[in-house]
Amino acid sequence: MAVNLPFRNLLSLMHNRFLTTSAAKNSSTSQLLSSSFTVNYLMNSCGLPLESALSTSQKLKLEENNLQRPQAVLAFLKSHGFDNTHIAELIKKRPKILQSKVEDNLKPKIEFLTQNGFVGKLLADLIVLNPVILRRGLSSHIKPSFHFLNTYLDNNENVMAAVKRSSWLLTYDLTGILQPNIDFLIREGVPLHSISKMILTQPRTIMRKVNRLEDAVQTLKKLGLEPTSPLFMHAFRVLVSMKESTWSRKMEVLKSLGWSEEDIWSVFKSNPLCLACSEEKMRSAMDFYVNTMEMDVETIIRYPRFLMYAVDKRLRPRYNVLKVLKSKNVLKEGKNYAWLLTQNENTFYKNYVVKHSDSIPGLMELYRGITMAENKDS
User: Fold this and answer.
1) What is the pLDDT of residue 338?
2) Residue 31 to residue 50: CA distance in whole angstroms
3) Domain count of the chain?
4) CB 11 within 8 A of CB 32
5) What's the start-to-end Cα distance of the chain, in Å?
6) What family is this protein classified in (predicted)?
7) What is the pLDDT of residues 245-303, one digit of tens each?
C-alpha cells in the first residue's frame, strides 16, 4: 500500500498541477481539498501510483464523509478475486465504478458471469480488459449476448473461449450486426459449423458491413471456391479483413516481382493465407529466394507457402547451415534443398545441425549464433 503523503505537500502538488493544466481557470480551496482527498484515497485504498491518481482525480471526486459506495465496491471486487493490480487498472480505466451500487448494479452482473464460468482471475482479467461490460444491462444485453453465442457455439465452454479471446462480444450488438451476417452466409451455402468456428476464432471477420461480406463471397464464387470448402473460409477471412487499397498494393508488389495477375489469383485460390503476408514480407522473401538462393519465380508461384516463412528467423540460418554442409559434401547430390526449408524446427535441427555438429566444428554455433542474433535484431 502506498505511503500517505503529508497533506501540505499533496495540496501543494495538486495546486501546482492545477495551475499547470488549468491556468485560465480559478479553483476554490474546497475543490483543491476535495481533489487532494480523492488522490490520497486512490493511492492508499486503490493502489494507483501518484501520476495515475492525479489524472483519475480529474474524472472522479470523492468525499471523506461519503465513502460507503467506494468501500463497498472495493470489498466486493476483492471478494471475487480481483487483486490490487486488477483493481488499480480497472479504476484507471473506469473511475466511476467506485460510485456504482453493488447490490443493484455490480452484483447481478458479476454473479451471472461467475455462474457461466468466469471466476477468480479469469473474471478479473475479463472485466479489466473490457470494463464496458459492467455498463451494459444484464437483462437487456449481457444475458442475450451469452444466449446468442450459445446458440451458435453449442456450449458454455465454447462461449467462454470466444469471450476470453474477444471480450467485446459481450458489449457489441450481436443480434443487430452479427445475426444478419450469419443469415447471409447461410443463404450463400456456408455450413453452420464453419460459421461457428469463425465466431469462435475470428469473430471480427463477420462483424463487418454486410456489403463487404457480399463482395467477398461473390469474388470467391467466381474463382470457383465452394462455400462448403475449408479453403473458402480461409480465403473469405483474408478478403474481408483486407482493405481494397491494401489488396491492390499487394497485387502491384507481386507484379513488380514477376508475378502475373493470373498467378496471384491462382495462388490465392489454392493457398489464400499466403496473400495475408505483409508487402514487406513478400518483398523480403522474394528477394531472398531469387537473389540469394537463386530460385526461379515459377517455383515460388508453384509452392507459395514459401512466402510465409520468416527470412531472418528461419530461412537465412538454415540456408547458411546447408551451404556449409554442401561445401563439405555431406548432402546428397541432386537433392532439392529448398524443401529442407519447410521442415519443422526440431526435424531440421536434429537432422542437419546436431547430426553433423561433431564432424563439422562450429556448425552448432553458426546456426545458434545466427538465430540468436537475428531474433535479437528482429
Assistant:
1) 78
2) 18
3) 1
4) yes
5) 39
6) Belongs to the mTERF family.
7) 999 999 999 999 999 999 999 999 999 999 999 999 999 999 999 999 889 999 899 88
CA angle 141, 142, 144 (to 5 degrees): 65
Judge whether 38 and 62 are in contact, CB under 8 Å: yes
- Give residues with Cβ within 8 angstroms of 35, minimum separation 6: 14, 18, 57, 61
Q: Which long-range contacts (CB under 8 A, 24 or more apart) does 137-144 make?
A: 138/108, 138/109, 138/112, 141/170, 141/171, 142/109, 142/112, 142/113, 142/170, 143/112, 144/174, 144/175
CB 76 within 8 A of CB 102: yes
Residue 276 CA to residue 250 CA, distance in Å, equals: 9
- With cell 501520476, the residue in question is 51
The cell for 146 is 451469452
209 domain-assigned: no
Task: At 298, list the grid cell.
Answer: 515459377
Residue 215: partners with Cβ closer than 8 Å, 6 or more residues away:
239
φ, ψ (nearest 5 deg) of residue 203: -60, -30
Number of H helices, E strands in the chain: 20, 0
Dihedral, CA of residue 90, residue 93, residue 95 and residue 100, to nearest 10? -60
Look at residue 341 and tell me if it is in a domain.
yes
Picking from 242, 241, 296, the residue whose alpha carbon sits closest to that of residue 250 is 242
239 neighbors 273 (Cβ within 8 angstroms) = no
The residue segments making up the domain with residue 326 are 312-377
Distance of CA 129 to the CA centre of its chain: 12
Is 159 inside a domain boundary? no
